[in-house]
Amino acid sequence: MGECRYSCKSAVETLAWINDIIHLLAPYSSLINAHVVNFFKDRLWENVDAEWIECLRREPVQNLLLIPSGAVQIISDSVLRAQDEWPTSLKEFILKLRSMVFCQDQADMNMAIPGLQMTSLNGVLAQGMNVKKKHEVEILSAVISTVANSVKADAIVDVGAGQGYLAQVLGFQYQYPVIAIDACSHHGRVTDARAERIKKYYTSQMIKSGSGIRSLNVPRTITCNVLSIDSLKTLVEISLTGDDLEQSSLKAENQEDLGKLHWHSYANKKSSIVLAGLHACGDLSVTMLKTFLECKDVKAVVSLGCCYNLLSEERIEDGESQCGFPMSHAVRSTSFSLGKSARDLACQSAERWRSLDMYAGIHNFELHAFRAAFQMVLSKYYPEIVMSSPSIGRKGKALRRRHQRRSAESQLHLKGSTCHTTQKFPPNAPLVSETDWTLGSISAIQNLPSEIPCTERSGSEGIKSDGKFLHFENFCQSGLSHLGIKHSHDINLEGIWKEAEPFADLVGPYWSLRAALGPLLETLILLDRLLFLQEQGSALEACLLPIFDPNISPRNVAVIAKKIDKDLRSS
Predict the structure, then answer these.
(1) Which of the residues 61, 105, 151, 429 has an alpha carbon 20 to 30 A from that of 215?
(2) pLDDT of 250-264, one tens digit each?
(3) Is the dihedral of CA 33, 37, 42, 44 positive or negative?
(4) Nearest to 438 by CA among 325, 344, 554, 359
(5) Distance from C-alpha of 135 to C-alpha of 132, rounded to nearest angstrom
(6) Which residues neighbour 462 within 8 Å (Cβ) at sequence distance 6 or greater?
(7) CA distance 520 to 98
């Protein structure tokens, strides 16, 4: 795989990297901006080098799943073989993309953050966390604590706190005053109830040990939808001390309510606050970084973003735009924009693709084929529906759970069959993008077979079979039902499928090539955020640091920034 030869230690280096990415992406705008739901209708494969498509059409599914990771050398039949039959231009494309992606291999944390002291979570604090959440909270809480200590923080504000897992570890284990902000009032209630149970545990432990009762830092929750920098600045200034707040939980429905809370603020106090966010969604991560610059009390920020598809993006003419991308002045000045499809594509994870087994890969590509063929049905018989771009939500998680259950039940019956194993979907490894499956993640998918035909090809064997039309028909009937449309026998579903089926084996190669662009688009978004901070000059220091194992948590790059004390700068 290509190794990244770029650096982002300075604004000049970061901008050079960004400019090279923008230059590389330009020729592939049609691939980036395509909607896979229109794959058959718009014959999207014709927009890709025909030699590439024909080559990948013959590749095993396992090889396609490795393309987003930059693999052009594949283990096949236990023998390492270079893809000599691949066109040179295809190999260069994949390697070039990968060479420009920010390396997301987990950093050596002790080297990257001197003084970091990682502590395993006890059973009480870890209760309710899955493996992914425990991994994230255990590492991130230690990072935040180290950063908070370096700026002598009085308090930590957890933005987009969810059910308060991170806030509670920072409060009870690291003993920082914490305020947990989330838009969902249910999350606030869950956080408070869980904190009370943890408080009882720690109190009982102190009584048993005879060490005396010390004050516990129980996180205080605020329910508020943070829509602007001003609202977050107000929340940051709200006092976290027990003497100033009579309630452990506050609710602010709007800016007026925030004004009523503001009398509790640190306005007349000199304070040091750290903003923290574990996968703060969409523009919320952007708002955190801007608040870090604009609020004098915020001395540091540790932010991991997610849901790039939800970032706002406006036209570049507005030099002071508050949109989520681009953030930096330099990128705004290029008039470059991503667009909705590119932001959605940035959510694709090479690690998730690589973790899929052959059967899950085939299954996902089949679902894309069904969805794209269903789009042909809508375009031909219900064009007004297509124009309105309706959304019926995503049901991929429920599908995967059903598939896992059926796979487990069916494995006993498969031991004597020609297939050696039928493997399960990894629990959080979807290939289905949120944009492409606006209409497609339908409950009808539950009618697909739990066993996938035993084939290693992405070609006709993997997608064409006598039973495929039946599954496509069920898919369409359920899809129409969700749209409130009664199925009509006048709809020639068989004709639609016969038109699409000869090209169904091209879905995997096409979608794999698109997904290879995802990590580079994410790199661009991350570098833009870093450059936004670097443009402030010597007033602060900032870096990007991959703190999680990307196989456990793919969105693993933290933006870490601290304001530099004026006395230190002048010395």
Answers:
(1) 151
(2) 555 554 554 444 434
(3) positive
(4) 344
(5) 5
(6) 61, 362, 365, 366, 453, 455, 505, 508
(7) 8
